[in-house]
Amino acid sequence: MGEMTRGQYADAGTSLDFKTGNWRSTQRPVHVHAKAPCHTACPAGEDQQAWFALLQEQKVEEAWKSLVSANPMPGVTGRVCPHPCETACNRVHVDGALAIHNVERWLGDEAVRLGWDYPVAAPAKDAKTVAIVGAGPAGISAAYHCVRLGLKAEIFEALSEAGGLLRSAIPPTRLPRGPLDAELGRILDLPGITLNLRQRLGRDVTVESLKAQYAAVLLAPGCEKAKPWSVQGAVPADLHEGLELLRDFMDHGALPDAAKGDVIVHGGGNTAMDICRIMKRAGAKSVTLITASGLPGPDTAPDDLINVVPRELEEALEEGIEVIDHATVSRLIMKGSKVTGVEIIALKKEPGKDGRKRRVEFEGTERVVSVDMVVPCVGEQVDPEGYEGLLDGAYFWPDNAGGRVAERVYALGDARGSRGTVAAAIGDGRLAAEAAAAELRGEDDPSADDRSTIGIDALNTAYYAGASRTLVAKLPVSERTFEAEIEGSISRTEALAEAQRCLSCGNCLACDNCWTMCPDNAVIKTAELAMDGSHYVFDYDYCKGCGLCTHECPTGYIQSVPETN
To answer: 3-state secondary structure string, 484-527?
Structure first.
């Protein structure tokens, strides 16, 4: 550290002769680089504050490299993620959350357009090789992070193309195949990654054979099998489960004849929402989503909110999809084996004997609706073929973040159960690769980031100018087709402007507030240009613990902690 300077003092009769720090009794200021809430909320593990800081300096490629140190597919997640980072963003309390997913998407597309190299080196020739089952988002992420950690990765995929549900179950209106293929191709072209197609576990390879041949085995098969569905034992003869229906439509572009009539979709996830919108666009007379969850609103608890991308719900309502929330299908009305109507009943949450709230049917709210087709979207599970002895019911249930289910065997992605998003699968891929690499080195699982998360109360938002969130163009309802992407992109100018809205939560801005405002000259800094918190030092010989620096720190990087004697 270079020469240190104080804020303001006079040499003649200097106040430095009086060490006022002995007046301090209750608290002292410290530097705390806490996690920004966007980082804490991100299932992929991105540190958005870090890459937004680089964008603020117009270091665009460096920002992308910071982003892909956690998530190698920002062009994908920027389009399909429900972006819980934006819900958590502290700027929500000022003038609206940052448009994080839009900037993330732009960075991913820029990297493809300009051919930026991923920040990884080719593994050594004698590097150990990890076998990965499944080339969906979890498997692709795991392969990338294995290479990042100096390992080789060999992927075994049952289908004829990589991508998993990204390709087979997300419509082009949300994820065009051009950006998907470009980002996947760039990752799979990295030295150290080998892709084997049409290789199904249980038919072509086994877990034991992979364990015998490879240093570790990462299982990312996804969830290909629909959960059983019936209503009081009744099942229509022409039942079409949601994910299967969506895959058939993506492959062949056709829907059952009944889809032209009145359709009920039963579920509350993105698959259910995609089915609703496809059927409406295909000419269904009416489409109604029945979900046990609640719609966004001041009275809906966060854990009761419908689990769909917020903008997808907004667009579905624009397109004429009816949503009946806090309800379920309680009875099927059949004519022979064909469904002609459903009975819908409202749900409410009530505490059970253990104190936990559960949804129960609200008697007296039943109503009957005529329908031509009912599509259940109530979840999927792992196809058990080849995983005997490793599954616990419908899923793998590892007891740690890395996903370890046996020696040198890890489970990741949707197959872990209750994960459910592309971003979570990508995050699982990273965690599993890091855990496997640690095990191969004979080390414990990497320690989690246990830093605290900084909330809005720790910031001083008076120092930030108002700036409205970047608005993104969308296709009008009349122009929405089965292929055209609905949400548009942003420009470089808009992305950099959005970066300037970041509050830099928990990070030092080198604004000098602490240095200039301390009444006791107890903050000193380096004589060279200050860039971050390492350029500032608290001199506790003079600090009285007044808390002024804490209050005037815009980002919450300075926090007052109890004094210790």
So the answer is: CCCECCCCHHHHHHHHHCCCCCCCCCCCCHHHHHCCCCCEEEEC
What is the length of the chain?
Answer: 565
Alpha-helix runs per DSSP H in 115-176: 137-148, 165-168
Structural domain for 332, as ranges: 242-377
pLDDT tier at 233 (50, 70, 90 boundaries)? confident
Determine the Cα–Cα distance for residues 263 and 283; give it in Å rounded to an integer.
11
φ, ψ dihedrals at 421, nearest 5°: -130, 160
* Structure-token pair, residue 563: 């004094």
Predicted confidence band of residue 384 (pLDDT cuts 50, 70, 90): confident
Instruction: Check if the beta carbon of residue 187 is closer than 8 Å to that of residue 162.
Output: no
Bridge partners of 305, per DSSP, are: 294
Q: Is the pLDDT of residue 460 over 60?
A: yes
DSSP 212: H
Give the H or E element holding residue 561: strand 558-562
Residue pLDDT, tens place only, 418-444:
567 899 999 999 999 999 999 999 988
Total domains, the chain: 3
C-alpha–C-alpha distance, residues 115 and 453, integer Å? 35
In-domain check, residue 397:
yes
Please say which residue of 327, 360, 377 terminates a domain. Answer: 377
List the alpha helices (DSSP H) in 237-332.
242-252, 270-281, 310-318
